[in-house]
User: Fold DUF1272 domain-containing protein from Sphingomonas suaedae.
Amino acid sequence: MLEMRPDCERCGTDLPADQGGAFICSFECTFCADCVDDLDERCPNCGGELLDRPARVGAALKKNPASVTRRFKK
Assistant:
C-alpha cells in the first residue's frame, strides 16, 4: 500500500492524499508537479521515472490514512 507522503521532498508543498498533483517513483519519493517539470520527470534520489500518484479518497482514506511524516528538508 502506498505511504501517501504529505509533501514534496524538494520544495515542501503540501500534497493531500485525496487530490491529484503528486508524483512518485517506485520507492515512493514524492514531488509536486512544478518540481517534476524541473526534474525532467526523473527522481533525483534514485533516477527512476516519476509518475502520477493515485488519489486515495472516501472510505479508503479513512481506513488507511496518509502519512503525516514530512520529508522536505530545508
